[in-house]
């Protein structure tokens, strides 16, 4: 038995996704099946693509997971299991755009037939369905994390709604961060820099490594590379 999903953020290149086994949980936080099993159009094989932008955190082989890829998105990590041997075309540290091909569906590891086991991990595995089915969920979660970090750092009292409006813009314009800054907003920016491919410490201390990463990022996106994180840099970061 399989059913077709109305997917907004595809993980299969040909867009049609059939669910063959759902995420199941007996107790909250203790899933008995910690992801969703998917197959492609006409119950078939397909290329596997990145659900959203992020940096490849790990690839490898495991007797249960088979050939696998993990992608770090900041607020969560997406995982792709049972891929075809020798089909993985990314490596740890690569920055990926949403939709980039990472490999091909297979049946490696503990698997009875070709499928993709797709999962989302925060501190533990959670139900990945909202991530597949909700428009802009990754972007909105990033902006919510930004707003929370600004509230924590400056008592900005922003509504955590995932939208960069007037108040969020003002909170950043009033509090640009640079070498020597130290707070949760710095930590958020470091997490995003890590996500887009700069492996720096995410510790809330704006040191020279963070400054260099900021300058490189600013050059990459074509804005003034002054090493200071203001509204322009933040907007480029959350949109990447
Ligand atoms: Zn599975």
Task: Set out the fold topology.
Blueprint: E1 3-4, E2 18-21, E3 24-27, E4 30-33, E5 36-39, E6 47-49, E7 54-62, E8 66-72, E9 77-83, E10 95-96, E11 101-104, E12 116-121, E13 125-126, H1 129-133, H2 137-154, H3 166-174, H4 184-195, H5 208-221, H6 231-239
Antiparallel strand pairs: 1-2, 2-5, 3-4, 5-12, 6-11, 7-8, 7-10, 8-9, 9-12, 12-13
Helix pairs in contact: 2-4
Bound molecules: zinc ion.
Protein described:
- Helix content is 28%, strand content 24%.
- Strands 1, 2, 5, 7, 8, 9, 10, 12 and 13 form a nine-stranded antiparallel β-sheet that branches. Strands 3-4 form a two-stranded antiparallel sheet.
- A hairpin with a 2-residue loop joins β3 and β4.
- The longest helix has 18 residues.
- With 240 residues, it is α+β, with helices and mostly antiparallel strands.
- The radius of gyration is 19 Å and the shape is elongated.
- α2 packs antiparallel against α4.
- The protein folds into two domains: 132 residues, Glucose Permease (Domain IIA), CATH 2.70.70.10; 102 residues, Orthogonal Bundle (Muramoyl-pentapeptide Carboxypeptidase, domain 1), CATH 1.10.101.10.
- It binds zinc ion (ZN).
- Zinc ion binds next to loops.
């Amino acid at each position: 038995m399989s059913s077709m999903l109305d997917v907004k953020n595809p993980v299969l290149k040909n867009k049609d996704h059939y669910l063959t086994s759902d995420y199941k949980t007996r107790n909250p936080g203790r899933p008995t099946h910690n992801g969703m099993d998917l197959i492609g159009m006409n119950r078939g094989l397909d290329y596997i693509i990145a659900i959203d932008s992020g940096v490849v955190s790990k690839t490898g082989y495991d007797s249960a997971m088979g050939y696998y890829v993990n992608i770090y998105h900041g607020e969560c990590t997406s995982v792709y299991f049972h891929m075809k041997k020798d089909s993985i075309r990314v490596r740890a540290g690569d920055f990926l755009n949403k939709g980039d091909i990472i490999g091909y569906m297979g049946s490696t590891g503990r698997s009875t037939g070709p499928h993709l086991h797709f999962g989302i991990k925060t501190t533990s595995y959670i139900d990945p369905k909202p991530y597949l089915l909700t428009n802009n969920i990754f972007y909105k979660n990033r902006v919510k994390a930004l707003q929370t970090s600004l509230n924590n750092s400056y008592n900005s009292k922003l509504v955590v709604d995932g939208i960069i409006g007037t108040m969020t813009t003002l909170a950043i314009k009033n509090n640009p961060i640079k070498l020597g800054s130290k707070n949760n907003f710095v930590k958020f920016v470091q997490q995003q820099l890590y996500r887009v491919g700069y492996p720096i410490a995410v510790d809330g201390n704006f040191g020279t490594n963070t400054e260099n990463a900021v300058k490189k990022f600013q050059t990459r996106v074509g804005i003034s590379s002054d090493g200071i994180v203001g509204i322009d840099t933040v907007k480029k970061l959350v949109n990447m």
